[in-house]
Amino acid sequence: MYNFEFEKPSSIADAVAALGGDEAQAMGGGQTLIPTLKQRLASPTTLVSLSNIPEMQGICTGDDGALCIGGSTTHGAVASGAGAYPGLAALAGHIGDPAVRNRGTIGGSLANNDPSACYPAAALASGATLVTNTREIAADDYFLGMFETALEEGEIVTEVRFPIPEVSHYEKFVQPASRFALVGVMVAKFADGVRVAITGASEEGVFRWAEAEAALSANFSSDALDGLILDADNMIGDLHGSKEYRAHLCGVIAKRAVAKAA
Amino acid sequence: MPKDGEIKSGIGASSKRREDVRFLTGNGNYTDDINIRGQAYVFFLRSDVAHGTLNSVDTSAAAAMPGVVKIFTGADFEAVGGIPCGWLVTDKHGEPMQEPKHPVLAHGKVRHVGEPIAAVVADSLEQARDAAEAIEVDISELSAVINMKDAFKEGATKVHDDLTSNLCYDWGFVEENKGAVDEAFKNAHHVTTLELVNNRLVANPMEPRVAIGDYARSDEQHTLYTTSQNPHVIRLLMGAFVLGIPEHKLRVISPDVGGGFGTKIFHYQEEAFCTFAAKACNRPVKWTSSRSEAFMSDAHGRDHVTTIQLALDKDNNFTALRTDTLANMGAYLSTFASSVPTWLHGTLMAGNYKTPLIYVNVKAMFTNTVPVDAYRGAGRPEATYQIERVIDMAARELGADPVALRRQNYVTEFPYATPVAVEYDTGDYHATMDKLEEIGDFTGFEARRKESEAKGKWRGLGINNYIEACGIAPSNLVGQLGARAGLYDAATVRVNATGSISVMVGAHSHGQGHETAFPQVVADMIGIDESQIDIVHGDTSKIPFGMGTYGSRSLAVCGSAMVRATEKIIAKAKKIAAHLLEASDTDIELKDGMFSVAGTDKSVAWGDVTLAAYVPHNYPLEEIEPGLEETAFYDPSNFTYPAGAYACEVEVDPDTGKVTIERFAAADDFGNVINPMIVSGQVHGGIAQGVGQALLEGCSYDEESGQLLTGSYMDYAMPRADDLPFYSVDHSCQTPCTHNPLGVKGCGEAGAIGSPPSVVNAVIDALHSGGKKVAHIDMPLTPDRVWNAINNA
Ligand SMILES: Cc1cc2nc3c(=O)[nH]c(=O)nc-3n(C[C@H](O)[C@H](O)[C@H](O)COP(=O)(O)OP(=O)(O)OC[C@H]3O[C@@H](n4cnc5c(N)ncnc54)[C@H](O)[C@@H]3O)c2cc1C
Question: Helix or strand or coil: residue A38?
Fold first, then answer.
């Protein structure tokens, strides 16, 4: 690690001010950032911890019925506190291990947008809204590719609002080493249609599977996905699975997600 | 045989592991826990290219950075010896293997990613790292040879310019039999041929390596603290071959060590560096490996590519076996690298079977990868995997029952001289297979298969036998085979005045539970409580010269030395007792810690005798020396041959290719068992590593760039508790070793040797039950590979 200044503001305003400094970087749970620092792959001058900001903590229900989760809420807190959205709570409960879940945050995960992370699938499949210190961003506009988001320099995710689907499920097929998603599929059925988001599979990061959404909106059963197959070209191919394998898994895992949706 | 738990103390008791109290409460004393006043820290700048010419290493800017004590490069070690290889293999033409120089720090060239180029010693680790970033290294990158088949090709890039090729040796075993073996293949009724890969593994002990060099100018005394399985081996290799330090000026201490699995046997550059630098800097120098460094600097394991052929007659008797293996040495020869694919592998190619003719060819190759050496099982897992896979394949081709085919070909008469130069002293392979059929509940398998099918899963049952050679090794024999060291061990039994005992042993415990099991033996022999006995290990200034722990040798070899030393103690104590009891020492009996005169009620307690030895007021000083301390060295007359039968049941998810292990049974014959609980634990851990190899672990390099693709736990998959079922393990089949005093054989590696073939056999069986006629899949059987095999079948 290189040396850095450490700040732990107690309000969003102070955090944003601190992040305005030269080479300042936000830190959520540090579960991605600290390993990066230890390997000397990042060298911020100032680390601004977001873990002590009450406005960014906790879970509540908004006026429109959406589940609102503070940007610094840990995966563990979502796993135990998001009972109103069981599919989301279960997803959070299977991220990493207890140590990771006790530190890692939803804002950090969504800001990082790892192509194999779980939360991006939930945000996209739910049609969530990402609230930042300056604006609201629809999930559909937020994820721009591997590790890329619509966030501007110094902008922080303060809250995420999840419309609650009638039924949902996140099915994760793990990469055997990291246990991130080799392919993870979130299905969410709303009154006006079904949304399907897939993580882990694509070179472009999390994405919606339009054909599956159409088929499921017409008939919400795993049979509806029979014969649907994604193009392998844009898939990730690596040690853990070829492009073809990932394309195939998307179909299998999507079906399982539908079958288990509750 | 008594049931587990029936024996309460001494030999056969499941005494709780006393060392676990300190390990589990955070009170262990590991090398990294040791901090010496004034110590500096070293950071190694390691090559990030696989192969290149080192044009220059400019340390001038770095040397001026804050906290820097001194920076070393390859040039500083020109006067120093290279890291030695401990085993000279002679090839099939009678020529010695090609032995490249293995520098402490790279000189002239870098040959694998992770090779140390420079070492920065500074007041703090962070300062050392900062300075390392300021070192300017100019490397002209060369094309890398990674794949062994490429390395073997005519005109391939050479890893070592001064060698004639990338071939370390071309070993034929037994060369004289080759013609007869080929002839037998010509006459065979059936030949099964299989090409397979024994995947490269990273040992990954929980504790990464650490080394601290210390030097006392006043008496020219070097001390090296290191995470080693064998401190005396390090003292010998480093002192004599690398740094030229006489033994009496070099003390090597290996305190608590958090797992070794073979990779902590070897003498590494970092140990030599810290010892050397402590003197050069006149400060203690400490190195603690990071996990990332461990992936690219700890010797890797396995990495063989083999074609194996089995010949059978019309009655399904095995008539001949032959193999062609490419074995990866990596870029340099690690301490025992050359012996693993040869003597530790070829000699086991008979397996449990009476195949009369065997020929093994091994070509050891240099590549631009981390050196490869012994890893839990070392050579025997490679042999077992080949034999047990090819037999399973033959059974399938012939429509034979895999158990029956094995049974029909078992060695049943002992001693048995194999056609590959070793003699099995004892064993009963039918007994372990009978036990396996029972604990594996083979009769219930079909019903379980149906249940799996009802869930849309394919279920398979895979079995295998294994035999291994432990208790390494008869020194005169291994000397003839090229070992550059003896392989005896030693123990000193020091009885204290009031009767408690310290046993100084050459074996090193790094998870095996010696501190519990060894006292059980001595307690049993004397008839006193185990708590009266402690063992001392891991410090060359405290223990006799022993060769350490690997090859499941600790109890069979060092334990035998301890028995011999204890016998000497008892003989002397009887003489003292005889004096005290005014009887003849031939009439003295020792039972439950009491010496008595046969046929009388006269007796004297152990503690009275030991006190007399140290307070010799009433003592035959003219006949017996005072004190009670004896040392014995023990050199085994043969290897020991643990053997067993393993069964694995898997479910395969045909949609994803994912394999789950549903049941696992292991029936082992370890000879006599000192502590059944510890033995079970050793088997449990071994199976976890074997399953890891079969399903999860695969060290992988990019074949173009030579970059390590599995350089962290993000990509290198370790087995975890939920990857494994509850095992049924049994070691009640016991044919005691005939040539060591305890009748023990060794159990440390069996699990890792015995489990991979049954896992793979089970997956192949499952695929066949699903109508997919897949002949073979190479390990690790990842979901992706299994799915591909299903798809292409
Ligand atoms: C062993 C292990 C296993 C894991 N397994 C999984 C898994 O199975 N699935 C999964 O999805 N993830 C997994 N993770 C990742 C984990 O969920 C991380 O917590 C997450 O990716 C990052 O969240 P964080 O709060 O720790 O962010 P940090 O590491 O603190 O930050 C990550 C990045 O986000 C930025 N950032 C942090 N918070 C905010 C914010 N509120 N607004 C804007 N930017 C912000 C930081 O500046 C940094 O660039 C695993 C991690 C580990 C170490």
Answer: helix
